[in-house]
Amino acid sequence: MKFSRKVLSNGMTVIMEKRELPVISLSITNKFGAAYEVSNIKGIAHFMEHLVFTGTQTRTHEDISREIEKKGGVLNAFTSNEVTSFWFKLPSEHLFAGLDILIDMLTSPLFNPQKFEKEKKVILEEIKMYHDTPQHYVFEKIESNLYDKPLGEGIIGSEKTIKALGRDFVAEYFKKNYSAENYIVTAVGNADFDALCAYLEKRFKRGSRSIALQPIKTRHNDSVEKRPGIDQAHFVFAMHAPLPSTKEHTALEVLDAYLANGMSSRLFLKIREEKGLAYAVKSSINAEKNYSYYSIYVGTTKDAVPEVKKIILEEFNNVKNMTAKDLQEAKERLLGLRKITSEESSSVMNELLFAELRGNAGDYYKHEEQIRKVTLADVKKIAQISGHSTAAIIPD
Q: CA dihedral defined by 288, 329, 280, 393, rounded to 10 degrees?
């Protein structure tokens, strides 16, 4: 493995992990997402992600997908709070064919008026789909309970905000916020780094950025929503967490491995194996650069929600009894999982992306060193929570 990083004269940052396997995963990521939006245009970043797939000045939607898929590749994108990322995975000999498609999408999207209105309908259906899936929607609710507007209003937007967006406004907004100096290019696989940089240098010109991250205001709130037609209660417990790239955030990773991550974790054993209160007990650390929160999801019965919450709080308190052996086992779990996930080039591509967003992609390779430094006292301290939020969707 060889790691390379370079900032081009057009402002783009290019990072790459060289591998000998004949596969390449590559993303072009714009440091712009939902956290940059004001309330009345919520969902515009996600909408623009959709729109660039609808066609360019030289390619139709069908051309874009076909040119990747006929080579055995995968093409996709995602929008988060702080970035919008477009990526592909291809046999490495087709790197520049795939890259040409991404560049075309980002430099000459057509924003066809008919396609624009059709894609608006697609997103409105996507909003309904997420709302009608309680296990997904409860995570939107917990984020709104943790953060005030506009961050707490979600990524996808609402029916009101999406319907209000006009084609010309969105096209102009895209031009203002998609430019080379705002891009991170991340590649993992078998490619020539210098050739990749030269190609990107030639194809992109420096622009100018005109928008800033909106203020992130935290809060604590609890919500319960009753729904007819469902049999299971969906419950999320969450708390604000230290920002990434801090010692405290690394301690939270170790705490999670002990407390809630996996079938041998304290909460899984207590809630599912001992009490039989749930099938699913899952945790996640949700963090980019400027925000971070920790959540625990439990799918349970309506009547068991208070008991589940009580158990979660008790197990946080019981972390004071964590032993040196527990600490070592949690660390080994984390380090083992990192090795397993690092086999997948697209996973490493995204890990490097977010490490770069937070300051330095090279920090990705310091993960084991950082985990090894976490002490028992560090974990016990991070488990002393001072506030939390909850969200529940329960049968009516």
A: -50
For 323, the 3-state DSSP assignment is coil
**In this structure, what token pair is assigned to residue 82?**
């702080």
Q: How many structural domains is the chain composed of? A: 2
328: region left, alpha or beta (phi > 0 left; psi from -120 to 50 alpha): alpha
152, 216 contact by CB (below 8 A) = no
Distance between CA atoms of residues 265 and 280, nearest Å: 13
- pTM attached to this predicted model: 0.96
Tell whether 100 and 138 lie within a shared domain.
Answer: yes
pLDDT band at 174 (very low <50, low <70, confident <90, very high): very high
Please tell me whether residues 126 and 23 are part of one structural domain: yes
Q: Binning pLDDT at 50, 70 and 90, where does residue 1 land?
A: confident
Same domain, 68 and 9: yes
Buried b or exposed e, range 132-169, using 16+ CB within 10 angstroms: eebeebbbbbbbbbbbeebbbbbbbbeeebbeebebee
Domain that holds residue 56: 2-203
- Model pLDDT for residues 20-39, shown as the tens digit of each residue: 999 999 999 999 999 999 99
Residues 189 and 273 in one domain: no
Tokens representing 137 are 């929607």
Together in a domain, 183 and 257: no
What is the side-by-side strand order in the sheet with 233-240?
A: 222-227, 389-395, 233-240, 292-300, 281-287
3-state secondary structure of 386: coil
* Residues 279 and 372 reside in one and the same domain: yes
